[in-house]
UniProtKB/TrEMBL annotation:
Amino acid composition bias (Polar residues), ranges on this chain: 236-245
Name under which the protein is recorded: PIR Superfamily Protein
Residue segments, region Disordered: 211-245
Organism from which the protein derives: Plasmodium ovale wallikeri
Pfam hit, one: Plasmodium_Vir
UniProt xrefs under InterPro entries: Plasmodium_Vir
Amino acid sequence: MMSEDISENDLPSVKFENELKTLMNYTTLEGYVKKQTTIQDIDKWIQSFQSKVEQYLKDSSRDTSLDYDKRCKHFNYLINITISKITSLSHGIVKTNEWSHKIKDWRSKLYTSNPNLMCKEINTYTKNNKKILGTFCEDSDYIKKKISDIQRSKQCQNILKNISTRKELLTTIFEDEKGKARKYTEINEACSIKNLNTIFPSITCSSSIEPASETDAHTASDNDVDTGESSDRLRTQSSASSRDLSNFRRESFTVTGESESSSDSSSDAIGLVSLPIFGVLALSFVLYRYTPLGSKFHASFRNNENT
């Protein structure tokens, strides 16, 4: 059975916040600048945000797998920071109060008309530290339930980095609270900043892929679905094969060159021995044919025949 490839975006709190902020067009709100963004732009943003989020919450209220208490806290927290951002844009206290009440009234009516949401305005993370701890506990519970799939997931390292970063931040908060003798941050007894190692002990990722040997190159190319890892691996193997082939050609050329040099040396030796012989014969022919020595030699040869 193939394991589920879980990513950090599947962590419950991360998924919820990403979906909600996308619907809210939250990046646009974050880009608004004090005393520069117009009242009309803010009014338009609030209207769009209310209609989209309302539909999303109605749809999600039918999902029985959700932890409504955690979703309620998270949603109210996001609404509160949204109100804080809008009131910071400073178009006068009258207008900012109007925006704040408009959003709060909308939320109250939303909860009243949709009892399936099981949420009240007072159920929220009162401080940022509590929100960090609450979402950390929620996502840690999810990881524990999905531990086998996550350990085999290609995104395991990203999930580990995400949750470990939050754990380090909470550890810093814990040390600060301990040093200043403050009341420790906690959601409940199980989700307390004093129990971070119990909430999330650690995970060991087993999703790393061993580099393929050259004999496995064909298997890798047949089985891998054009992933960057398999492409890099095949490129490496191809480069190695090219280098081996280049070396083989160079070695072959060296051996052949040495054989040719030996043959040339033998031919040169024969040529050097033959040259004096051919030279003597040629000189004798010239002397015989074109000089008086030839006539004398010819006459002497005839006298010897007649004798």
